[in-house]
């Protein structure tokens, strides 16, 4: 399918191609960062390649590779040709802190993809005109798709409320909102940790509802005889 | 309405009834809930279904959406709320005039759902108080109507404690699964819509 793209690239660019792989119609070339833009231009402008469809640019983090003294990130982009119906993926190894030349000069569509990779991995693109975070907010510290970003670190923009309005208690505690990963399954299977939310417990009779005097104390209280009137 | 006494009589046979002002007010409120739909994700589709003629939320007097928080009574938080949306949601809640209620529609809005990560608020109750939780991913329209009826019940009673739409016992389904349905004591949502 796209194997002829590999051949063509090898004949045009020769030594710029460091490595190729081909697996069930999924062709990939690895190039050095210094040839990044040149390869992109050839892919777009060569009449036999004519890659006019920008697909995506992304990155992969390999922290263990950095320990072996190799570049930490893979940065890759995919492009496609509408007319020739072939496609290719181009990859480069990037060290932490190393700049990647921008591809926005070749395909304008690279703009947001590069911003996303910057946002998620902290890889900077030299020559990009507007390299800001695109998905996360400016206050966010760190790069969430790096493998060393702690899996449970959240950076709320609004401070979490800690049940100041006693009559509308949140059913889960501050740390319990997302129960899937944080449940202690051994405790729960042994029946020691039931994790029944207060509101469900009241509805099902496992916990008593607030008494009239407790309600009267609270901020939005109605008078006791009114709540009893119903 | 709370205590209603109907009295027929008088010289010309006219009838009238007596009740408490608070009950009358609550009755009026619960049948004219203007909603502010804060729909952000896939649950929004099911929310539209509830408003469609098949389920017809207009039966409950709750069909009028108002895209100004100043004019709405119920804030429907429908879908995943990311950390980045938190300030907007909180601000909309604060702009609503009392009395106001909040319905958390779907698992994501109620507890973050499976988005257990850096992007998502683990339940909107972390930033605003919630009155009714409707679980489900997404909840079926029937569950949503159950939630609305729970809210109306709460408004009538003046009860501010959060309530959750409980799962329904469907004996046929339990039979199909070859298990006994788990009994749910005292649930407010067993009678269907
Ligand atoms: S609860 Fe499910 S359907 Fe609703 S917003 Fe979350 S993922 Fe989508």
Number of domains of chain A: 2
- How is the main sheet of chain A built? 5 strands, mixed
Topology, number of strands of chain B: 7
Q: What order do the SSEs of chain B take from the amino end to the carboxyl end, as H and E?
A: EEHEHEHEHEHEH
Summarize the structure.
Chain A has 230 residues and is an alpha/beta fold.
Characteristic key phrases:
heterodimer, A: 230 residues, alpha/beta, Beta Polymerase, domain 2, 2 domains, 5-stranded mixed beta sheet, two-stranded parallel sheet, 9 helices, 7 strands, disordered C terminus, B: 193 residues, 5-stranded parallel beta sheet, two-stranded antiparallel ribbon, 6 helices, globular, binds iron/sulfur cluster
Give the helix/strand layout.
The complex is a heterodimer of chains A (230) and B (193).
Chain A: H1 3-13, E1 17-23, E2 26-31, H2 36-45, E3 53-61, H3 63-67, E4 73-80, E5 87-94, E6 100-101, H4 110-121, E7 125-126, H5 179-182, H6 185-189, H7 198-203, H8 212-217, H9 224-229
Parallel strand pairs in A: 2-5, 6-7
Antiparallel strand pairs in A: 1-2, 3-4, 4-5
Chain B: E1 5-8, E2 15-18, H1 21-30, E3 35-39, H2 43-51, E4 74-78, H3 86-95, E5 101-105, H4 107-111, E6 132-134, H5 141-157, E7 163-164, H6 171-177
Parallel strand pairs in B: 3-4, 4-5, 5-6, 6-7
Antiparallel strand pairs in B: 1-2
Helix pairs in contact in B: 1-5, 2-5
The complex binds iron/sulfur cluster (SF4).
